[in-house]
Amino acid sequence: MTSPNPSATAAAGGPQDLTPPKGTSSHSFRRIVTDFGWPRIIIFIFLVALFVAAPAVGVRIDASLSDVFNRFGQNAIFVLALVPMIQAGCGLNFGLSLGIISGLLGATLSVQCGLHGMVGFLGAIILAAPFSVLFGWLYGRLLNKVKGEEMTIAMYVGFAGVMFMCIMWLLLPYTAPDMIWGYAGKGLRTTISVENYWLQILNNFLPVRVGPFFKFPTGEILFVALAAFCMWLFMRTKTGTALTAVGSNPDYARSSGISVDRMRIISVILSTFLGAAGIITYEQSFGFIQLYTAPLAMPFTAIAAILIGGASVNKASMVNVVVGAFLFQGLLTMTPSVINSALQTDMSEVVRIVVSNGIIIYALTRKSKVTK
User: Fold this and answer.
1) Is residue 184 over pLDDT 70?
2) Average pLDDT over residues 173-191
3) Is 160's pLDDT higher than 70?
4) SS3 215
């Protein structure tokens, strides 16, 4: 008697052999590792190891966690600002410095107008909005002329914008005594304190304290959550869907009646505005407005964070933002605390540079492999 044909049995609706082929579990593991990436896995394991080793070198875990949450709240909106341009196919926003400059203009104008408390913080964001729209519109029009080279051009645009503002911070007619150089009476200082204006206005809103060392910045985290939720809602609107369609398949989007250039400009304006809101959120927590060359490095840390979170140069989500910002800031918090205590040396800046640029290089080389 011949054995039944498995394909014929399956086609007839009979019993099928559901036993997975040999090596399925190992194949799935390799696929997970490939998708997630060894650098992200190593960073996660390294971060866990730092938390485990912390008590052994005299580092308090509660104080470290408090610092991680605070840093996460300070920097998460920068990471969120990258999502619109990635989804629209403009790549990683190395020109985020333009948004940061907009936020610096809003913050300094808020101090110039003498705004305090929540009015000062929200006023800074409102005052930054016109600059972010203008800069984003010009920046977006430029990127539309250099399609395929957006990330390279963006880096030069961000650098040029920061250098230009190094001149303007000395020439703009600010008069607030808390901001201008004392000996000359004109030009803005490199570092401006917001202590008398809106220092930690978000951090001190309904904070959760556990013991003398742990403080959860409830207001700051809620503000980040609100921004992420608004972005999530926007990406599900008609405009947000069109924006994603442009990034996924611009030819199909164009044939569907979507203006590709218009969607790209909208994504750049939105990214620039979020960059402005991000620096103001950072300043209220950090306590100072930092001018001149300070914005140069900020885009790189934000880009490294979203890539650590699992995003690519073509696709990003809210999960990538949250996971990436937490992992990256956790790494930058725990590394100097644990390793410096163990080795009695300062390695924080070295780790930041290696991780930031290493992850960016890794992501760009992965894209080039995919596009070949």
Assistant:
1) no
2) 86
3) yes
4) strand
At 13, list the tokens: 């609706």
Arithmetic mean of pLDDT over the chain = 85
Q: Tokens standing for 90?
A: 């403009």
Write the pLDDT tens digit of every residue in 232-260.
Answer: 999 999 999 999 999 999 999 999 899 99
Report residue 4 as tokens: 């039944």
The CB-based long-range contact list for 203-210 (8 Å cut-off, 24+ gap) reads 203/70, 203/73, 203/284, 203/285, 210/62
Average pLDDT of span 187-213: 92
Measured distance CA(287)–CA(308) in Å, rounded? 27
Q: Which of 11, 166, 60 is nearest to 104 (CA)?
A: 166
Q: Backbone dihedral region of 207: left (phi > 0), alpha (psi from -120 to 50 degrees) or beta?
A: beta
∠ CA 308-312-315, nearest 5°, is 125
Number of separate helices (H) and strands (E) present in the chain: 15, 4
Instruction: Note whether 276 and 282 are within 8 A (CB).
Output: no
Q: How many CB atoms lie within 10 A of CB 218?
A: 17
* Closest to 163 (Cα-Cα) out of 268, 295, 278: 295
